Predict the 3D structure of the following.
Amino acid sequence: SLIVIVSILRILSVFTISNNDLIFDEASHMNIARGLLEGLDYGYIYGEYNDAQRPPVYPLVITPFFGMFGSSEFVARSVSAILGILSAVVIYFLGKKLYSKEIGLYSALILAANPMHWFYSSKALVEGTFVFLIILFLYTFYSSFKDRRYLIPTGFLLTMIFLTKYTGILVSVFFILFILLWKRDLLKNKYFYLSLVVALIAIIPWVSFNLRVYGEPFGAGGFLFERATEISDLNVMLNLHGFYLFVVVIEAALFLPFMLAGFYLMFREKDRNFLPFILFFLLFMIPLSIMSVKRPRYLLPVLPVFTIATAYCFMKLKNLKISGIKLEKYIIPLIIILVIGSI
């Protein structure tokens, strides 16, 4: 019932999202989609390839909706909002697969109430799609441990994540490192290599387009990469501590102690997901913390592992007794208070 309530709040937010001014990136995505509907080449605006450097997945996602319902900001933002709701649904199944139905429910509630996820899922930006695809990737990847056929959609999702936002390449790094460190038996399975073939085939159209327009595999994306990877002049530890962890990553600050406690409990109990979660976190945290270009949305990809770690803490608290009093009956009221306080 709680997840239904949060989902209703998300759906209701769709009816207010058109009241906010457009961000520049939103306008660019919408212009690309409008151009595609008019039969123009990707990113070909005002006689030039002004927006062709933008990865293609999000504009391609909203294009058919523009064709059906009109090319308005309301339609574009509604697509992001729906993907935000679906992210909460998929993380429920991810939490259920990794642990239990209970953790899945807690995870869905926490993600749905996270103000960062809420905000960026109400904009015509790539982040809503990005987070949704990452959670879906984690689900199919972990599913492949029992059914290797899931590796095929996993490979496809790796490319879609990269073509949604170029920092998504870090998810591919996680995929390879995870297999090398903890799941080397996959290297002997044909579906692993099929997943790589699928990933490569999926990226061919985008590479071909960039070679035609820019003469380089990823076109103007190379310039964006060079700009983003310039090391900040500020102290690295200052960036790591001050900018990201306590200010940006967890704006739902009321959940922060429970997230940290969740990671501690996973470590203490030698939970099998602790090291992979830490690896996933560090792969985004370290490089993005020392980059010169910083945006709050850059670390949205770590929300899935933060969310499940927090849910893990709630599960453990539920079974805890203090002075003979079992905390189980207090968990749901606690989550409700945290959700309300975070929205």
In short: The beta strands are 321-322, 325-326.
